[in-house]
Specification:
By secondary structure, the protein is mainly α. It is built from 16 helices and no strands.
């Protein structure tokens, strides 16, 4: 396997990956600010926010599916310099994200306690989680629209705007977290409710900035309000055809995450807290991996859309080597940061012990995640074979991961074994990914040649 000598590949990769990674870093920092500040309030507060964010996980995965479809189609049409079709795809993507977000917001506002009780029996966690969810649910719709707009810009290689917007969002969120959680500058102490209010306000700021850029600054697409009301049956058919497997794959993955949370929720609050802490460290390490993966996805979509298949094969071999290295490096970093990261939280000794065990497992499975997950998205899915990842995830989630975790839980196994069962697919999928990627049968041009 030989690295490509095409310098433009590395330049484009870095040009796209750096701002996307920085945006991901800021997005992580927003969530981490909530998590860390709330961590000063004790185990129930941390667990409550963790459980209160489970519906957000569902909408994030769904929106990730629709914006993933948008990004793939936009990048391929960008390779053909067909901007009118990109505008229509953005309009369709907005429609597909906004309506479900509105429905989930309504459900969470009405049934907040019942939703949290699906994941845990701990009365203290249910009370805290429901209080948080009733407020933070109001951020779902602004988040949905802003992600569509930022994804549209990524599809045409304008990656920096998302980074700048995220920096502003971080500043607002962290400042408001400090003021509202702990009752500064004359405000009352609001605890996790303050964290939820800060999140809602920061999402509104994020949306406002995205709208301002799209309508008044962007020179590539020049979107107008009427562009969001365009309807094209052929492109709608393409979006559904290619988007459904992506959305389906993300929904399968969100079901996996939700059921995983419910399984861990059967343990004590210390195990839930540990899962939250381990998840935050894992998210921190995945920042640069996700940035590289998103950048590879744009390059792949553009290259395949332009019909440059031999060049794409060369790129694919290079990408696999890059992510194998990223995986080994990331796993090592997770292990080395374990104890210092856990020490940031004011949690019980048992929760610290669980967190250390969970992070040890993540240090191993991250190696597989970096290779198979990012290559399957950045290459296979972005290259046009949108249904493969959906089928692969469905088989592993319902045929391997959840059955093993449920058996381990019913058998009375300790939390770390259950957690290992929930993460085992990250290594097993590598064998499938190696075969699939190197057959190169995933390169499919999804664009239409006729003027639509």
């Amino acid at each position: 396997m030989v690295l490509t000598r095409d310098r433009s590949f590395y330049k484009t990769l870095l040009r796209l990956a750096i701002p996307i990674s920085l945006q991901n870093l800021v997005t992580f920092a927003v969530n981490f600010a909530d998590n860390l500040m709330v961590g000063r309030l004790g185990d129930n507060a941390v667990s409550g926010v963790y459980m209160g964010n489970q519906p957000h996980t569902l909408i994030v995965m769904y929106i990730g599916g629709t914006t993933g479809a948008l990004l793939i189609l936009a990048a391929q049409y960008w390779g053909k310099d067909d901007r009118n079709s990109i505008k229509k795809v953005v309009s369709i993507g907005t429609m597909f994200t906004l309506a479900p977000s509105a429905v989930l917001t309504t459900v969470c506002l009405i049934f907040s306690s019942q939703i949290i009780s699906l994941f845990t029996n701990d009365a203290g966690v249910i009370a805290e989680g429901a209080a948080y969810l009733r407020i933070v649910a109001c951020s779902y719709m602004p988040f949905a629209i802003s992600q569509v707009l930022i994804s549209a810009m990524r599809g045409v290689e304008t990656a920096k705007i998302g980074m700048y917007i995220s920096f502003a969002t971080l500043s607002v969120n962290v400042s408001l977290n400090y003021i509202l959680i702990f009752g500064k500058l004359g405000f009352p102490v609001m605890g996790i409710r303050g964290a939820a209010i800060a999140t809602v306000i920061s999402r509104l700021v994020e949306l406002s900035l995205a709208i301002l850029y799209i309508f008044f600054v962007d020179k590539k697409l020049k979107l107008t309000i009427k562009d969001f009301f365009q309807f094209d049956r052929l492109l709608l058919s393409d979006f559904i055809r290619y988007g459904l497997p992506i959305v389906g794959g993300n929904i399968v993955w969100s079901v996996n995450m939700l059921v995983s949370s419910a399984i861990l929720g059967r343990f004590d609050s210390e195990a839930i807290t540990a899962a939250s802490v381990a998840g935050m460290l894992s998210s921190l390490i995945f920042i640069w991996m996700n940035g590289l993966s998103s950048a590879v996805g744009v390059i792949t979509g553009k290259t395949v859309g332009a019909g440059q298949y031999e060049k794409m094969k060369e790129y694919a071999k290079t990408v696999q080597l890059i992510f194998a290295f990223v995986g080994l490096f990331s796993g090592s970093i997770i292990f080395m940061l374990r104890d210092p990261f856990i020490s940031l939280y004011s949690i019980s000794a048992l929760a610290r012990s669980y967190a250390a065990q969970f992070i040890n497992i993540l240090a191993i499975t991250t190696v597989g995640t970096c290779y198979q997950a990012t290559c399957l998205f950045g290459l296979v899915k972005s290259g046009g074979d949108v249904s493969f990842v959906f089928k692969n995830d469905t088989i592993f989630v319902f045929g391997v991961v959840l059955p093993l975790a449920i058996i381990a839980t019913v058998s009375g196994m300790p939390p770390w074994i259950v957690f290992a069962c929930l993460k085992c697919d990250q290594l097993l999928k590598c064998f499938v990914a190696v075969v699939k990627i190197n057959r190169f049968n995933w390169m499919k041009n999804l664009t239409r040649t006729a003027d639509i």
